[in-house]
Amino acid sequence: MPDLLLELFSEEIPARMQAKAADDLRRMVTDKLVAEGLVYEGAKAFATPRRLALTVHGIPARQPDLKEERRGPRVGGPEPAIQGFLKATGLSSISEAKIQSDKKGDFYIALMEKPGRPAIDVLAEILPVIVRTFPWPKSMRWGERSARSGSLSWVRPLHAITATFGLETEEPDVVKFSIDGIETGQTTFGHRFMAPGAIAVRRFEDYDAKLLAAKVVLDPDRRKDAILTDAKQLAFAQGFELVEDQNLLDEVAGLVEWPVVLMGSFDADFLSIPGEVIRATIRNNQKCFVVRDPKTGKLASKFILTANIEATDGGKAIVAGNERVIRARLSDAKFFYETDLKTRLEDRLPKFDSIVFHEKLGTQGERIRRIERLAAEIAPLVGADVEKTKRAARLAKADLLTEVVGEFPEVQGLMGKYYALAQGEDAAVAAACEEHYKPQGPADRVPTDRVSIAVALADKIDTLVGFWAIDEKPTGSKDPFALRRAALGVIRLIAENALRLSILNVAKSALSGLTAKVATDAAKLPADLLAFFADRLKVQLRDQGARHDLVDAVFALEGQDDLLMVVRRVEALGKFLDTDDGKNLLAGTKRASNILSIEEKKDKRSFDGAPDAALYKLDEEKALAKAIDQVKSEAAAAVAREDFAAAMSAMAKLRPAVDAFFDKVKVNDDDPKVRENRLKLLNEIRSATRAVADFSKIQD
After folding, report:
1. Which H or E run includes 505?
2. Which of 61, 93, 201, 235 can bridge 242 by disulfide, Cβ–Cβ 3.0-4.6 Å?
3. From residue 356, how far is each of 361, 407, 511 by CA, in Å?
4. Quick one: how far is CA 145 from the chain centroid?
């Protein structure tokens, strides 16, 4: 079957837009093909700075013929309805329609046949629409066309469109269409400087090979591999080690069509600046990699750049140009750093009183004081030194007002640590200045220092409670204040450090610092926030392979706000339900709950209270009552010592008695007193299992 080759050749496409643009092109074309009945075998899209390209393999040469039945008006219906039906279906007379009968009467049915069109004609119709409606995040109009109504809007000026379609063994046809005077053809262009001439192409294999010969590496993954391999080898040859940076690699690969890796250097005096600042300066300004000494792990005064040309001088001029810019930028960074060191962190704090954090939550200064107070309350709960924690919380945000962080926001926190150490702060205080932001994502490190933990928890919980109090909760996919990330951070801090902490109590404490400023339902907010933590915990545990319904089953118990204990209950419950005893007890408990629900609804009452042993008629009733008493005692004792596995083992003893009860006992006995007593016994089953979880929340 034929293949499609499509290339959209333009001025330079921003690197950050290329990957999504390639994916959008593949998706839009293939979706349209499938919608037109042209089911293809495979598709792959590519992007370079100057082109988007797509190849689609195995497209049928023609659309399939379509046969369709369309139901019309009732026989004998109004004449206008019949005429409309004839017009819509293309029938010349109603006698050409069939009559079909159903329960509602006789109706006209039109049999319509639509012959398939050649695929190349379909492509000529859909491709211009895709180009005109392409979802660039930013686009532009240009030249004479920009003044015309309906002119093409593209990310950068579009110069040529290659579109061919045909079998591998034959000369392909051009998919003919025109967009704003740009006619499709079989001509593309090579590297802007090294091979700028026109290139005639036929199909993808031919196109890819000719571009490579014209100094264009089409596949971005191939460009990334080349850059990374050459950079590592160049660093190794000089006795250094490349500091890898995947995001930078992705960006650099989008800036070049023919990557050429070169090494430059800068003055060793700049190594007095923190390595992260050097890296940020070189990365942000010149898109270059840094290298380190493998023996010491410290940065070396070298950098690696990626050029887009094989220069005749071996790249000397390119390297020299980058060295000049990097020298100037590092001079600025050194000046900023040394200037920052002249002002102590605490001396910067008064400025925060004039910076608004949120119009409803006050200034940054007020927030820092809230975090300091809350961190001091959390410190004893997590084993942190209270005074060090208060000091760390007071200084943690101060680096936001420094020159270096103003220039490079990505080093906030980290610079706080450096400045704290430089002014002689305790190591734990300095570490907390950096680590209180952590963890910022599922792959980020969780702090283990107790002072850092206390400040990190205070920072995140203050954020959550504050925005909850002003009703700025996440909605759908929108979470402008990153509250989901904050909640997951709290969960990881607690779980991975095995902390015993009441989320409700800490949230209430955080709320007390807000109530003077924010009008809110103080009684409702902590419970509402706890439900949000439950949802986030489900996400966390699901990522680890646990069942989300087990989280619901544990949180349904009153007072379950100790997240560490919730996690341990969920783990034990999951293991228990994987056993036969667990599965059968779950089935029995659910059966008891269902019967109770039906009968409680019927009688409009609950069946609380202890059963009357004198009303037991059958041995199975007596055995179940005895088993429940034993299990309640054992499970409660196990839960009290937080041995949830033992609590589950105790629960397992209920299984034979529950099975025998349902096998031999009629719950809805004819004697109303016996019926009530048996329903109370079923309620005892439900109550006994609630020692560990609400089994009604567990899915079968």
Report:
1. helix 503-512
2. 235
3. 8, 20, 19
4. 40
What is the rounded CA–CA span in Å between residue 58 and residue 539? 40
Nearest to 73 by CA among 117, 108, 118: 108
How far is the C-alpha of 682 from the C-alpha of 675, rounded, in Å? 11
Identify the residue with better confidence: 548 or 182: 182
pTM, two decimal places: 0.79
Characterize the bridge pairing of strands 299-307 and 260-265.
antiparallel
Please report which helix (H) or strand (E) contains residue 6, including its range.
strand 3-10
Residue 496: which of 531, 447, 534 has the closest Cα?
447
Structure tokens at 370: 């809230």
Q: State phi, psi for 547 to the nearest 5 degrees.
A: -85, 135
Look at 20-29, 213-222, 574-583 and tell me which has the smallest mean pLDDT.
574-583
Q: Locate tokens 């290339």: which residue?
A: 7
- In tens, the pLDDT along 562-615 reads 888 888 888 888 888 888 888 888 888 888 888 888 998 998 888 888 899 999
Q: Which residues pair with 475 in a beta bridge?
A: 478
The alpha carbon dihedral of 207, 209, 214, 215 has a sign of: positive
The beta strand positions in 150-308, using DSSP E, are 158-166, 173-174, 178-179, 182-185, 187-189, 198-200, 241-242, 260-265, 289-292, 299-307
Token pair 């008695």: residue: 657
